[in-house]
Amino acid sequence: MADLTSSGITQMPWAGYSALYYESPAAARDGSPRLMLITYNFPPDPSVGGLRWQEMARHLAALGWAVDVITRDFRGVHGLDGERLQRLPRGVRIFSVPSSEPLASRAHKFAWPFLRKWIPERTTSGVDALTREQMAAQRGGRTVLRAYLAWIEFSRDLKWARAAARLATIMMLTEKYVTVVSSGPPHMAHEAGRLAARRTGTPHVVDMRDPWSQNQFIKEAVASPVWLRLARKYESRAVANAALLTMNTESACDALRDAYPDHAAKIHVVRNGSDDEPLPPPRRDGCFRVRFAGSIYMDRDPRMLFRAARRVITELGLTPAQFLIEFTGQANQYQGRPTIQLAAEEEIADFVRIRGQVPRKRVLEFLAGATVLLSLPQGTEFAIPAKIYEYVRLPAWLLTTASPNSATAHLLHGTEADVVEPSDLDGMTRVLRHRYEQFTNGVQPLPVGRDGRFDRSVQVQAFLGLIEQYCAAPSRSER
């Protein structure tokens, strides 16, 4: 690799294809049990997918564990968030493994300008993902392209997984690890964990933040039966080899147990959770602010919110100084159309503000100024938007659009959160009107999770209990 010492990256002396990217200033305590984590997204990657294990590492360190992380190469990654490294605890080391394109993919990129005139244009109205039913109904030349791109995606991820497994194997043969944990998506991290575990005899824990072959929506570009067959192939290998599998929600756990009944006993739930990260103080300026942080894609359709807002704005005669809807993140467009254009079609463009992607610190400041925190539909009933666990810590009302049978609705059952079906325009209108009237009457919202029921520390304790049960880890009394 190139000389990266100016960026704080030191070349590993025994692995020319990887680097020690980061090492916490305080080393792990002598005798600390050590966990190997393989995941593609980890700080300083700004992706929200890295938050789960960023915070789990903190709680594990507090309980006496050390964590080594094998993750992606960060060169060329836009928006790296160095402040998230400062959040990591003692005893954490991060090793980066670069990706490389398979030969077929390199040839495809070279030939694409010449082949483009024979490849059909995208005909799915700008949608980001397809359901299984939509995928099965697709016909024509684009189905061939999707099959090819699905194969390329798995080939590319497999190359990274094998490189990550080589590094993990070397490390596990030179130092003792209680377990190797793989976390995805991207789910081929589990193949890396499987390979390293088999080569070293180390117990493998598969941590799925989202379902893999049971996914209800597939990215449009790769929405092919080929993708599903490859997902099932590698997923079944990981399930068979794993000592333990953890899922984020009860519904996802049930789906995986149904898919692999012979392995159901080792499949358990370890949810995401709320963290103790310091929050900025609430900022109130007399304006009723509905705020959303994250990405708008798949079926996270904001138009029903815009229609409900237009009703309330018209009925109460509101101005943008009194009522605003604000977005931050990858929220500039939905299904290929500008979000502000969708707002204009509902005649509320003056009431909508859209910011781009910003560092996590500024996201928290943005959320701290909300009157209502918005969660748009997740796209799959198995998953819970990660932002929910941040939202419940903040002093704001929570408006969630989710079906009654979804994992999100089950999580928030019994709380003060407003859960409305995505198509329920009247219900969304009632919630916005009611919360606005409370706001103007001086009622101050309180955090939905103020009783601690969503704290991540509870989930980490559950995770360690499972590690002790399935991976012969040292009990807490022995540490």
Structure, explained:
The chain is an alpha/beta fold. It folds into two domains: 5-101 and 129-273 and 456-478, 3-Layer(aba) Sandwich (Rossmann fold), CATH 3.40.50; 288-440, Rossmann fold (3-Layer(aba) Sandwich), CATH 3.40.50.2000. It has 15 helices and 19 strands. The chain has a nine-stranded mixed beta sheet with strand order 1-2-5-4-3-7-8-10-11, sandwiched between helices. It has a six-stranded parallel beta sheet with strand order 16-13-12-17-18-19, with helices on both faces. Strands 6-9 form a two-stranded antiparallel sheet. α2 (83-86) links the parallel β4 and β5. α5 runs parallel beside α6 (189-200), α5 packs parallel to α7 (225-241) and α6 packs parallel to α7 (225-241). The radius of gyration is 23 Å and the shape is globular.
Key descriptive features of the protein:
six-stranded parallel beta sheet, Rossmann fold, 2 domains, 479 residues, single chain, globular, 19 strands, 17% strand, 15 helices, disordered N terminus, nine-stranded mixed beta sheet, alpha/beta
